[in-house]
Amino acid sequence: MKASGRPEPDAPIRSRRYKVGQQEIVRGDCLRVLRRMQADSVDVVVTSPPYNIGLSYRSYPDRKEEAHYLDWMMEVAAGLQRVLRPDGSFFLNISGSSAQPWLPFELAVRLRSLFVLQNHIAWVKSISVGEDSFGHFKPMNSKRYLHRGHEHLFHFTLNGDVMLDRLTAGVPYKDKSNIARRGHKQDRRCRGDAWFIPYETVRDRAEKFDHPGTFPVALPEQCILLHGRKEARVLDPFMGTGTTLLAAQRMACRGVGIEIDADYVAIARRRLEEDQLCTEEG
Questions:
Q1: How far apart are the C-alpha atoms of 29 and 32, rounded to whole Å?
Q2: β-strands 23-27, 16-20 pairing
Q3: pLDDT band at 214, cuts 50/70/90?
Q4: What is the DSSP letter of 130?
Q5: Which of 35, 57, 133, 236 has its CA 20 to 30 A from that of 42?
Q6: The domain spanning residue 49 has which CATH number?
Q7: Which ranges of the chain would DSSP assign to H, the alpha helix?
Q8: Is residue 9 part of a domain?
Q9: What residues form the membrane-spanning segments (predicted)?
Q10: pLDDT digits 0-9 by tens, 155-178
Q11: pLDDT per residue over 16-62, tens digit each?
């Protein structure tokens, strides 16, 4: 989840750890925490860093010089490369803005020195089909730009050779005759690289946990499913309010979330505890 990592903290923040079931939350700067993590210890990274497009985080000014921002993200990515297992997956959700459309691609190109771009997934948040529309359309008050209905989900691996569980993360066939005609063993096919995952409708920022960039829990769930490792160790270095860890908890995975903002850490702990309680009562 988009979170409040800080490229230049005013003073080092002493790390503090919390456990909720199999989920571990670390309050601290992600660069410092990553340096202390064991190498080759993470199966899946799912994260959405600050986009550097002026979003209003609680503890992080989301407007840096572009070169500075990219250098900082490369430091984070080097830390992720070190802790990722050889067969691990790194899913990076990022978006630009209408005025800054190149930023995600600038970062992706830089990351070529550390990773292979194995898949480029379009996270479709809203779409028009014929005369109908689906998802939430954020108002766009411009005569120059189109409504932005998708974000990037870059799937990086160390060597580009990671086997994925495409069918478990897939969808049923529309035409059931394809199952026998094409010799498939089950009613599942690959979902493809355009994922329609709309936001749940919210009326105000409080319903987004006072965070400017939450993503739906279904997004990290799909990433974990696609990677296809049982009881995977999942990492989100920009945890925010804990959505990636919530997905990990629901999928019986072990999660680690890093977040610098104490209020977001408190929200993440509460969400995990409430979800755990609901599961036990159910």
A1: 6
A2: antiparallel
A3: confident
A4: T
A5: 57
A6: 3.40.50.150
A7: 30-36, 66-83, 103-110, 177-181, 218-227, 243-250, 262-281
A8: no
A9: none
A10: 999 999 999 999 999 999 999 998
A11: 999 999 999 999 999 999 999 999 999 999 999 987 765 554 555 55
Distance from C-alpha of 149 to C-alpha of 219, rounded to nearest angstrom: 15
Q: What percent of the chain has pLDDT over 90?
A: 72
Both tokens assigned to 207: 């319903």
Sequence-distant (6+) residues with CB within 8 A of 33 are: 15, 26, 237, 258
Strands 194-196 and 23-27: unpaired
Q: Which of 167, 192, 187, 183 is nearest to 175 (CA)?
A: 187
Q: How many domains would you assign to the chain?
A: 1
Rounded distance between C-alpha atoms, residue 70 and residue 154, angstroms: 16
Q: How far apart are CA 221 and CA 245, in angstroms?
A: 10
| Main-chain phi, psi angles of 58, to 5 degrees | -75, -40
Range of the domain at 181: 16-129+145-281
Asked if the structure places residue 6 within a domain, the reply is no
> 90 - beta bridge partners?
45, 156
Task: Answer yes or no: are the C-beta atoms of 4 and 57 closer than 8 Å.
Answer: yes
Which tokens is 167 given?
A: 């069918």
Amino acid at 220: P
pLDDT digits (tens, 9 = 90+) for 94-136: 998 888 889 999 999 999 999 999 999 999 999 999 999 999 8
Cα gap 28→79, rounded to integer Å: 15
End-to-end CA distance of the chain: 27
In a domain, 202, yes or no: yes
